[in-house]
Fold each of these.
Amino acid sequence: MYLESGTRDAIALPLLGSELVCVVAPSRPSALIQIQPGPRPLIPQRALSPGEQYRFHFDMTKCIGCKCCVVACNEQNGNPAAINWRRVGELEGGHYPHVQRHHLSMGCNHCLEPACLIGCPVSAYHKDPVTGVVIHNAGTCIGCQYCTWNCSYGVPQYNPERGVVGKCDLCHNRLGDGMAPACVAACPESAIAVEIVNIAAWRNDYVAANAPGLPSAQDSISTTRVTLPPGLPPDTGRVDTQRIAPEHPHWPLVFMLVLTQLSAGAFGALSLLGRFEVNLLPIAASLAVACLSLGAAPLHLGRPAYAWRALKGLRRSWLSREVLLLSLFAALASTYFGAALLHLPLARPLGFLIALCGLAGLFCSARIYMVPARPAWCSRYTLAEFFSTALLLGPLFVLSLEPSPPSWLARATALGAASQLLSQGLKFFWLARSDPFELRASALLLSGRLKNAFLLRLALLIASGIVLPLTASSRSAFAAALALALLGEWLGRWLFFVSVVPKNMAAAFTAPRKAAA
C-alpha cells in the first residue's frame, strides 16, 4: 500500500490490484471506516509471467480529445509536430438531437503478428520476447518505408530529416524503471493505461481490440484493448471520410518500376526473336535501361548508402527478393552482352534465363504492394498492371531499334495496351462498386481530383499502344510511339501511388490527417 490522499480526519489507502480504496482514521488505524471505488493503477503492479505481454488500454468514455498525450509523446521522443507516434482521432454518430461525439487515442498496438516486422527487408523490427513490445532499430533502418505501407494503423512514420522510420515503443525504458509511458502520465483523465494481457487467450478472442474508426484487428491481431461508451450509436464512425487527399507519389519508384518493366519486356521479346548475336543494339539498350532503373532505385531510400542491407530479408520480404532477382537479371544480361561482344558461343537458353529472371523480378515488385493495408493495391490488378506494362513497352522498345522487325512484335504491343486498358477499366469499376471506404475513396480520387490525369493515361494507351504500332512502318514512328507509351506508363505509375487510400485510424475533423498535434 502507499499513501494517496488524506484529510484531517481520514487517510485513503488504495488496495493494489483493485479499484477499491480503504479509508481509515489516523486516530484509529485498525478501524475500517469505509471501502469505496478508487483509481485503477496506470501501469501493472506485478511482473510479467510467461505467456504474457504489456499492452495499452484506452478508455473512450474518459478521453476528452485534449491531445496532451500527443504533445507528451513528441516531447519524450523529440519528434516534430507533423510526426505523431500517438494520434487522436474523432468519431461521431447518432441523429439530432441525440448525437454523440467521441475521441480515439492510439499509439502502437504492439500486435501479436506485427505487419511492420514481417515486411521489413532489413530486420529493423523485433518483438521483445519478455515484454512483447514491438521495437524499431533506427540504426538498422534504411528508410525504404515498406513498413509504413504494411501497417493498417499507420503507426510507423517516416522522418525525412533523419531518413528513417520511427514508431511508438510503449516507452519501454520508462516502463522498465517503474514509470508510466509519457502519454499515460500526461493524460489528465486517465484514459490511457498499460496493462498485462495473456497472449494465448487474447489470440483466441481479440474482439475488444476493434472499435469504430479503427481497421479490423484481424489484420495483425492488435493487442490494444478499447473500452467503448455504453449505448454507442450503430452508425458511429470517423469524421474525416470526406477529406480524401492523394498520397505521396514516390517519384524514384515511378521512374524505376516503368524502366524495369520495359527492360524485362524487351529481353522477353529478344529471347523470342532470337537475334542476340545478329544485332547487339537492342540488348545493349535494354541492358542500359535495366542499369539505369536499378541505379534509380536507391534514391527512394532515406539512407541510400545502406541499400545493400535490403538482401537480409529474403525469407520473408518481397522487397529483398525483388532486389536479388533484378540484380541477377542485370548481371546475367551484362554477362551475355559481354560474351556476344566477344563472339563467344552462348546458347539461346541463356536469353530465356535472363527474361525469366526479369519477369520473376516483376512478380516480386508487384507483390511488394499487395498488402492488406493498401486495399487498392492488394489485388490481382496490380500484377496485371505491371506485366501489361512489360508486354506493352518491351516489344515497342525492340521495334524502335530493329531494322526489320517481325509483325508479331507490333501485335504483341497492341495486346499489352489492350490488356492494360482492360485492367484499368475493370479495376476502376471494382473500386467504385466496393463497400470498404478505402476502395471507394480511391475511385473518387480517380473520378474527381485525378480525373484529367486518368483520362489522359487511357488516351495515351490507345494512341501509343494500339493505333501507332499497328499503323507505323518506320523505326522513327515506333520511336514516337515508344515516347508516348513511356509518358503514359509513367503517368500510370504516378496514379498508382497517389490514388491509393491506405487503411488508417480516424483523424481529426479540422487537422491534416498526418499532423495530429
Amino acid sequence: MLFKPKYLLAAFAFFSLAQAAFAQPGKDLEGDNVTVVKAFDAQLLEANKINVPPTLPALDTSTQKQTYNVPPHPSNIKYDPPKLRPLGMKSAPKEKAFNGFAKLGGGVPTALYGEGGYFFKSGDKFDGKVWLKHHQISADKAIENQKFRATEGLVSTNIFLPNNLATQVNIGYTYDRIQFYGYDHDSLEFSPERTRQDYKILDLGARLYNSRRTDADFNFSVTPKFYLLNDFYSNKESHFEIGLSATKWFNEQHALRINVRPDLTSFEDTISQKLNNIYLQPTFTLHFDFMQLKLGANFVNNRDEFSIFPDAEVTLRVWGDGIQAFAGITGDLRKNTYRSLSEYNPFIQIRGSKLRNTRWDNYYGGVKGNFGWIEYNGQVGYSKASDLALYQTLFTQEGITRFTILYDTLKIFNLQGTIKFSPIKNLTVTGTLSQNVFEFKTPGTSANKLGVWGLPEIEGNFGAVYSLLENKATLKASLHMADRISYLNEAGDREKSKTLLDLSFGGSYYFTKNIGAFLDINNLLNNKRERWYRYPTIGTNILGGIVARF
C-alpha cells in the first residue's frame, strides 16, 4: 500500500510538535488542538540541462625504448614424442610371421636329417624357444666305420619382471657319436664298438639383466654358466663360470664397462686336473662423430700368477660408415679344455695330455666399411701365441690313428678379409679368406722345418644365396677351401695332406605358404682330402626332403 504526501506531512508536523514539547519542559502548550492550515506541496523548479561532451587526450606519437627483464624459469615437462603418420596412404599388408619350422629328409650315402623349432610368446611378460636337430650319415660301404651321428637340443626362455628386470634360462644337450676309422683298411678290421666314441654334453645357463637402460644410464647382467661333459671312455669334464658385467653411459654415448669372470674347469681321466682363471676387464669407450676410442686392460689370474694385457682400439671414420680405419692391441689367456680340443679334433686322445692356457698377444689394423649394398673388413695382424695347442699324430698299438696334444710357441702373421654384398636384388654373396704365416720361437726356424701340426695356413669360405618367385624359391652355392696340412706318418716323416676344395649347391621351394621341399648336393667335386691323417672326408653326398613352417 502507498502513502500519499499529505499524510506524510501531517505525520512530520506531529513529530515536530512532540519534540518541541519534550525539548521545553515546564512550558505547556496553549490548548490541546492543532490546526493544519495547508498541506505541504514541494516542487522543483525547471532547470536547463548542461551537455558536457567527452574528449580524448592528444595521442603521444613519440617512440620510446622499453626494457623487459624476464627471469628464467625452466619447466621440467615430460611428454611422449609425437607419432608421425602418413595421411591419405594405405598401409602395406603385413607378411605373415611363422613361429615354427620343421625339416625332415634323407640322402645318399645313407643319411637321415631332422630339425625343428618353435618360438612362443605370452604378451610382454614371457617368451621362449625350443629347438632340436639330428643328423647322421653312414658311408661304411665305401670305408669301414666311416659314419657319425649328432643330436642337439635347446630350450630357452626370457621372463620379464617388474622394476625393469629380466631373466633368461637356457638348457642344452648334445650327443655326438663318431667312429675312429683312421686305420689301414686293407689289413685291419674293427667292429663299430671298438672304434666308438661318444661325447655327451649338458649345458646350463642363466642371465639376470635389466631389460631397458635405467634412468641413470646404467646396465648390468649376471650370467652363470655350467656344463658337464662325459665320453665313452669315462673321461669327465665339468666347467663353471659366472660373468658379472656393468656398463655406465655418460652423455648417452661414452661407456664405462667392467667385466668380472671367474672361470673354473676340472677334468678327470686317470688323474684329476684343474684349470682355473679369474678375469677382470675394465674398458672405457669414447664415441665421437669422427672417431671411436677404447682404452682398457685385461687382468687374468691363474695359479696365483697375474697376467696383464692391454685392450685398446681406435676407429677413424674417414668417410662416414663407408670407409673406417682401425687399429688395436689386445691380449688374453685362452683355455685349452677337453671340450674345446675335442670340438676342433674329435679324434684326439686326451689321456696323458695336460690342459694349459694359451697366451695370446695381438696387434692388428685394417679398413672396414658399409655402403649399404656392400660390407667389408680387411686387416693385417701379428700375434705371439705361447703354449699354442698343436695336434700330432698318435699311432695306437691296435693300429688306429689318434691325435695327441703338443704345446709350442709360435709367431703368427695374419692377413684376412671378409666381404658381404648384394650385386642385384635378392642376391647376397659372402666371402672370407685368411692366410697365416707361422714361425717358431727359435730364431730362423720356420714352420716348413718343424710343421704346424693340424693347423692350416690358408682357409676360405664363400657362399651365395638367391631368392626368386617372390621368395617362394631359394638357390644357394658354397665353396670351402683350405691348403695342405702337415702331419707325421708312421715312419716319423713329415708330410702334407691334399688341398681341400669343396663345392656344394642346394635350394628349396615352397609349394604353399607352409609346405615346401629342399635338395642339397654336397662336395660336388668328390674331394676326399684328409683333414686329419687317415680320416678322409665323405665324398659327394646328396640330402633332400620336405620343409614346413607354421
Amino acid sequence: MSARERLQATARDGGSVDVAGAVIDHLDLWTGAVTKKSSSGRGSSGKIELTGIKRLRELILELALSGRLTEPEPDEEPAHRLLSRIEAEKSRLAAQGLIKRPKTLPDAGDSQPYSLPPHWCWVWLGSVTNYGTTDKAEPNQVAQNTWVLELEDIEKESSRLLSKVRYTERQFKSSKNRFARGDVLYGKLRPYLDKVLVADEPGVCTTEIIPIRGYLGLLPEFLRLALKSPSFKRYANDSTHGMNLPRLGTDKARLAMIPLAPEQEQHRIVQKVDELMALCDRLEHQTSDQLEAHETLVDTLLGSLLKPAEGSLTQSENATELADNWARLAAHFDTLFTTEQSIDKLKQTILQLAVMGRLVEQDAKDEPTTQLLERVSNEKQRLIQSKVLKRTKSLAPLETSALSSIPESWLWVNLGDIISVMDAGWSPACPPRPADPEKWGVLKTTAVQVMKYQEFENKQLPDNKTPKEQYEVRSGDILITRAGPKNRVGISCVVKETRDKLMISDKIIRFHLIETGLSEEYICLCLNAGETYNYLEQAKSGMAESQMNISQDKLKAAPVPLCPANEQHRIVQKVDELIALCDQLKERLNQASETRCQLAEAVVEKGLSA
C-alpha cells in the first residue's frame, strides 16, 4: 500500500481526519520541502534534510499533546480526577515507606504553555513522576547479560534504539542508573534532549540518562510523547545549565509542565501517533528512494558526456557524439536538475568537459601549444638570467601514459613548468574579528573557495605586529589552500579584485604564471577538475583527515592539460557562461524550496490554530 493510500485509510478511521487530510491535500508539499544540510569545502556531501516531513512529525506531536488528534469518549474520567488519584497514590506509597515523600512544588497558577481541552489539565512533571529518584548500580551488582545503555545507542530525533549492548561487551567501572521495564529513559544532556525511549526490559544506563516512572494512570508511551513534544524541548533547551556540556537540572525538569489526558484517551493518542509516524516513515523512505533514483539517473546521463571516445573516432565524430548526448540531456533538463546536488554535479561535469578539451572547438589558426610552451620556457630562462627568478631544480619527466586522453593539439605539462614564483604567507596570532577597512588583515583559508575569492574572510593583524608587505595579496594571484581538513586542502581560486592590506597566511600557497598569455582562470579551472584535481587529491598527506597538507614540491609536479592560449580564453568564457546559468537555476530552485518550506510552515500554523 502506498503512503497516499495509507493516509486515506487513516482518514477513514476517524479521529485524525484533519491531520491525514492535511497530509493528503499537501502531499507534494511535505515531500518537496527540503533544505540542504550545511557543509563546506571540496567534496562536500551535499546531503539534504527532508524539512517538510520533519515539520509534519512535529505537527503530529503538537496536535496529539493539545488534544486535537483524537475525540473524547463519553463518561470518561477527566484528567483532574486522575491527578487526584495520583496524589492519593503518592501519599499511600510515602506512608508505607515505599517512596520518599515528594518535595512540595509551587502552585502553577494560571501559567499554561497553550490551551487544552476542558477534560485535560496541566501538571508539573515532578508531580506525576518520580523524576530525580534513581537507583544506582555498581559493576559488581549486575549480571553478565545486563543491558548497558549509552546515549550513543539512541538515534537523535527519531529516538530509535540503534543497538542493545550487554555488560559482557560494555563493562563499566563507575556507577550507572538502574531502570526497570516500562521506565521512560530521558537523555538530559544537550544536544541530546530529543533522545527518549521506553525500556522494554530492565537494565542500567549512563547517569546522563534519567529513568522516569509515572504514577498510576500515566502511560509510559504517552509520557514519552510529552517529553518529545516541541513545547517540552523548547523548555528543556531554555533551562539547561553548564558551559561545555549543558544539561537539564533535576529541579528545572521537575518544574516542567506537561499536559495530562484521561487515561483511556492516552492509549488512543499513542496508537494514533504511532500510525501517523509510521506513515511519515513511509513518506520519508519513498522520498529518499526517489531522490536516490534521481541521483543515479543524473550520474548516468552526465557520465555519458564524459565517456571517452571508443575506437578511432575522429575529432569531429567525437564532437558529434558529445552533441547528441548533450541534446538528450537538454530534452529533460527541467526534470533532471531539480536538486542542488544535481546542479553541483552538472557544474562539475562542465569543468570536466572543459579540461578534456570537449567544451569548445579547437581552432587550427591558434598558435600551437608547442610554440606557447617554447615561449614560456624562453621567458622563464630570461627571468632567471636577469636574476628576477631563482633557478629551481628540474622536475621529473611527466608520465602521461596513465593520464586521460586530450586533443592532439594539447600537451601535458607540470604546473612548475609554467609558473614564475610560488610562496606561502604568514600566520601571526590574530583576534577572530575581520580587519577594519584601513587596517591590515590576514586571510583565513576560508577566503579561498572553489574558483571564488572571498576577501571578507580575514582576521585583523594586531597593532603591535608589523605587516609583511611581501605577502600582500594582489589581483592576478592564484591561491590554493595548503593545510587543514582534507576537504579544505587543495582548493584554489584566482584573485580578480581585492582590497589593500590583506596578507596570505602560511596555510595558503600563492603562485603566478609566466607572463606569455597564459590564462590564470584556465589554470585554476584545471586545479579543480580532471586529472589535475585527481592528482591533488592523491598528493595530500597527513596523520588524520582533520589535518592534511600538500607541499609546494608536490603542487609543482601536478599535471596540467595545456592548450593554446586563445583556446584557454574561449574555454574560460564558455565555462563562465554555463556556470552562470547553473547559478541562476540553483537560485530559482532555492527560491522554490524556500517557498515550499514556508507553505509547509503555513499549513502547520493553520492546523495548530484550527
Amino acid sequence: MEKLLRIVIKEAVASLYGADAGDDLLQIQKTRKEFEGDYTLVVFPLAKISHRSPEQTARDLGEYLAREINAVSGFNVIKGFLNLTIAPAEWVTRLHEIHGEEHYGFAAPGPDAETIVIEYSSPNTNKPLHLGHIRNNLLGFSLSRICAAAGARVIRTNIVNDRGIHICKSMLAWLRYGNGRTPASEGMKGDHFVGDYYVLFEKKLREQIEPLVDAGSTPEEARENAPLMLEARQLLLKWEAGDPDTVQLWQMMNSWVYEGFDVTYRALGVEFDRIYYESDTYKIGKEIVLRSLAEGHLIRREDGSVWIDLTADKLDQKLLLRSDGTAVYMTQDLGTATIRYNDYRFDRHIYVVGNEQNYHFQVLALTLLRMGYDWAKGLHHFSYGMVELPEGKMKSREGTVVDADDLIAEMTATAEEMSRELGKLTGYSDAEKKNICRQIGLGALKYYILKVDPKKNMTFNPKESIDFNGNTGPFIQYTYARIRSVLKKAEETGVTFAAGEAEKVIPNAKEISVIKLLNDFPALVTEAASELSPALIANYCYDLSREFNQFYHDYTILGESDENLRSFRLKLSELTGRVLERGLFLLGIEAPERM
C-alpha cells in the first residue's frame, strides 16, 4: 500500500507543482491511533518544492488525491501532516493481491544477500541446559529464521564449551567420588549425571574452604588454594598436555553430556547447521595470540602471561594466555571467530549471549581489529537480559537452576491439565492428546519468552504463560486452529472461494483492520530482522489474532448467504491463518491444526 501511495503522491506533486519528488522527500508512515486516517505524509520536505506553507501544501495534495485517485477516499490536515484514508475497495484489492503471493512475507536470498552467522546455545559440558539456556536457544533460533525470511543467508552455529577448569571440576569429582557409576547404571540423562558431579565438587570445595578461612585466609585466597582447586588446575594442565588417561576420561564424560544435550535440543525444537568445539578452537586461538605477540601487538609479562593493552580505547589490559600457557575464554573466542570467518566469509557474526558478557565481546572485537582482522567490524553481540523465576535468580554451582528438561515436561503437563479442565481434549486419541499438549506447552513457553523485548530482564511464570485468552502462545495457536476448522468445514460442505470481482464487496471496519495487519507482515519481518527483535513478530501475531477473533465473534463466515461476501471472508480467514502460521514459524512455534 505504501508503494502505491508513493506513486500517486509523486503524480500529485508533478501535476500541482511541476516538479519531481524523490523518495527521500516522501516520508510516509502509519497514522497514529489518535488521528483519523490510515497513512500519514510528512509534508515539511515538500514545502521546498511547492513554495507554500506546509499546511497549504498538505491541503493541496489531499484535495488532489481525493479527487483524482480512487484509492484515497478522504484526508485531513494536522499542521504539516497529511492524513490519508484508503478507500475500502482498495483494501479488498490488496487482500486479493496478497492471497496470490505464494511466499507472502518471506524473501528469498538474492545474489547480493548478506551472509550472517548466528551463534546461540553455547552450553558447558559440566551441566545440563537450564532456563537461561532456553531463552538463549529460543532467541537465537528465532533470529535465524527471521533473518533468513528477510532474505539473508544464515548459518546457525553452536560453540560447545567442552574444556577448561569448570569441565575439570566435574571430571575430578567423578574420579574421586563416582566409584565407576555411569548414566546407564544410574538411569539418568548424561548431562544431568555429569552436572551432579559439578555441584558435588563445589560442595566438597566449600568444606575445604571453611578451615582455611578460619586459619586467616580470605575467602578468595582460600578458594584458590584449596586442595581440590589446585588438583583441578593440575588436571587442566594434564589435559592440555594430552595426557592419555585424562583425555580418555574427558571424552567419556563429554559423550554422556552430548547425548543428553541432543535429547533436550530435539524436545525444544532447535537446530544448528554447524557445531564447533572449544577443544579445537582454543588451539587456533593460541596460535593467533602467539603470532600477534611476535608481531608486537601484545605484551608478555614477567610471569610469562600474555596480555593486550586496550587502555587507549578506554578499556583495560586483558589476559589472553595464563602464565602456565593455558588458554582463557578470550583465547578460545579469538580462534572460533577466525575459523568461522574462514569457513563462511560472513558479513555479520551475531553472538547471542547474555548482557553479563557485554565487556567480553567489546574486547573480542577490538582485539581482533588490533591484530589486523578487518572483518571483526562485522561482529555483533546480541545482548539480552537475564531470565529469572518469581522466587529469584538461579545458581549453577549450588544446583538451584531450573532444568530445561524438567521445565519442558512441566509445561506439557500444565497444558494437559488446563486443556482437560476446559474440555479441549474431548474426542482425541491418547497420541493426539499427547502431541497437542506438547505443542501447547512449548508454544506457551516460547511465546512467553520471545514476546518480551530481548534487552530486558524477565521473570518467567509457567502458570501465566498457558492461557487460552490474552497475550499468550496458546491464544494464537487456538486462533490458527479455529481458522483451520472453518476452512475444513468449508471444504466438507463444498463451499469454495468464489471468483467474484473485488469491487462487489465493501468490507466493514473490522475486516479492514484485519487486512491492514496482513498488509503489514512483510515490512514487519524486515523490521524484526533489522532490529533483531523476535518480540516484534510475537506481538504482531497477538495483534492479528485479537483482531481476527473480534471479526469472527461479530460476523458469520460460512453462514453468509452472499456468495461474494462469503468468499471474501473465507479468503480473509485463510490468509490470516497462513500469516499466523508463518509468524509462529519465525518464533519456532508449531501451529496445531486442531486444539
